[in-house]
Amino acid sequence: MPKWLKNAVFYEIYPQSFYDTNGDGIGDINGIIEKLDYIKELGCNALWINPCFDSPFHDAGYDVRDYKKVAPRYGTNSDLYRLFGEAHLRGMHVLLDLVPGHTSEEHEWFLESQKAEKNEYSNRYIWTNAAFEPAKGMLYVGGETERDGVYVLNFFKCQPALNYGFLKPQEDWQLPMDHPDCLATREAMKDVMRFWLDHGCDGFRVDMAESLVKNDDEKKTGTCALWREIREMLDEEYPDAAMVSEWNAPVKAINQGGFHMDFYLNWGGNGYNSLMRDYDSGEDNSYFKKDGKGDITRFLSEYLPRYEATKENGYYCLLTCNHDTKRPKFNLDDSELKIAYAFIFTMPGVPFLYYGDEIGMRYLDVKTKEGGYQRTGSRTPMQWNTEKNAGFSPCPADALYLPVDSTPDAPNVAEQEADKDSLFHTVKDLIALRHREEDLQADADFETVYAKTGKHPFVYRRGGILVALNPTTETAAAPVSADGWKVIFSIGSGKAENGVITLGPQSCIVLK
Ligand code: NOJ
User: Fold this and answer.
1) Residues contacting ligand 1 via CB (< 6 Å)
2) pLDDT tens, residue by residue, 402-435
């Protein structure tokens, strides 16, 4: 386990929208380098950068055309190597986004694979034997290739699935996992990983990590075995490299697959969804809404067994948001966000902050861009200040990759830096607290102390620290004895007296 994860706090950067230094309306690697000090100041000491590789951008870069080349719109490979170096100089780590399940249909492997004549790449993707033979039960495309066959997709039409084999092949075109051509795909992906690790990258966020082996069983036996082998490669060759899976099944991803971290993703109705995004039914029952209708046990009943089962082997990670999810500001105001973030940054595992969430950037109603659809509203340019294009880019506004939030009260970094009571400062203080207190970091024990349906506050222990949260507008008290403990952090008001912890409206205290 890379030691640096213990105290890591990640900042996710959507490179399109972070900072544009060359005035072409889209963010770039040099922009990330210029803003490293800002990120460090905020307290984040690690980055996850969404795919920044050469791509036709039909899925915002998750359709990779060349795994080893930075997309010219973001800069050059040398810029990215320089970013690794500058990050390391500041004691920061950088994860790239690895997309192992599919490539762009414009990747040279695919261009070869679709040729009628057999070649080294014929089996790099999954093909049936004839254009009129469907790949039953799978997404596929037919009729577009020289080759007489249909090919299997992993996600959008532009993303043919790479061939890592089938757990139990059922048709003659389905190859077993140990077929030399499937092993070659695996080796090709390891080669991509080694390429970036050798140039200074510190690991990968892995896209759709569960999807590699087809017809896999419920336990994902095939896919987990594949990742376990990659973990062995890393342990041997790059013991400091870290891997986080987009999977949301930590027992599989961490215990079986060997991932160091797995994301707790927002899936309708799940525990994470109940915290900040439980509004799809029309009524908002999110736990961090101040009206107090939420129920923390909905989160705990799902989280706790997963946490307990995996805590010895890796980290089940909480995030403020990601590029696929509605920003938390969509339904929570800053006073609600402060309590929600107090929770995220005091929980076990490694926290991830999505760019702009530290200032409460909004989810915007904007036209889809590069396959974003409803996700596009969470991908708009970072708002740095009150200057042109919110300081994101010097280009004319109509040349921007995506529009900037133009509402008069749109939050921005400069104003929030100057305001001690801002969300920005709460986030900064929370992360600083986490860095100061080892018991608030990734490994220290977590235990619920007071968590009841329909009641507030919520109290939990991390090692020798107690955290008490009251997201509601009413004062809340719990029979928890912490008399004499010192308050080391607070939002709003709270105290521990006579065997009772009492919190004022929308308050949080951390006791030691
Ligand atoms: C998950 C990524 O987060 C998402 O943005 C992408 O569209 C799909 N995987 C396909 O790669």
Assistant:
1) 59, 62, 99, 155, 207-208, 246, 323-324
2) 999 999 999 999 999 999 999 999 999 999 999 9
